[in-house]
Amino acid sequence: MNQHKFIITQYNPKYAEQTVDMWRDSKEQAIGQKEIHSFENHVYFLNHILSELFQINLALIDEKVVGMIAYNEREISQLYIHINYQGIGIGQTLLDKVKEQSSGRLTLYTFEVNEIAQRFYEKNGFKIIGRGHENEENLPDIQFEWISK
């Protein structure tokens, strides 16, 4: 699988539809339930809310969106990888870049049902600091924190 050469780039609204498609598929697979927001609302959220509050980086293979991360120096808001491109280092590369730019401490939430994500974060030095955060999906979640050595 490692012949896939991906590039990391700043988010550009020309990738909005692709990004939202990938995000919805990845999230649905991870939590086993359909996205509650319409596609149009999701695109609006990405372009006008998320991108105002966070830096967004995309991973691209041949102009195809295969991953996204939304973050600031203290928090990771979103990290989703295309369902056909998981396990080849895209999430790792995105996370490592964010760690480098962080304040030395990052927090994030992940759904309790998403065991793959939990293993990924634990492998990357994140520790559980809380449980049961409120979210729109009404699913139990876990708050993780990473502190640089």
Automatic annotation (TrEMBL):
<protein>
    <submittedName>
        <fullName>Ribosomal protein S18 acetylase RimI-like enzyme</fullName>
    </submittedName>
</protein>
<feature type="domain" description="N-acetyltransferase">
    <location>
        <begin position="6"/>
        <end position="149"/>
    </location>
</feature>
<dbReference type="InterPro" id="IPR016181">
    <property type="entry name" value="Acyl_CoA_acyltransferase"/>
</dbReference>
<dbReference type="InterPro" id="IPR050276">
    <property type="entry name" value="MshD_Acetyltransferase"/>
</dbReference>
<dbReference type="Pfam" id="PF13508">
    <property type="entry name" value="Acetyltransf_7"/>
</dbReference>
<dbReference type="InterPro" id="IPR000182">
    <property type="entry name" value="GNAT_dom"/>
</dbReference>
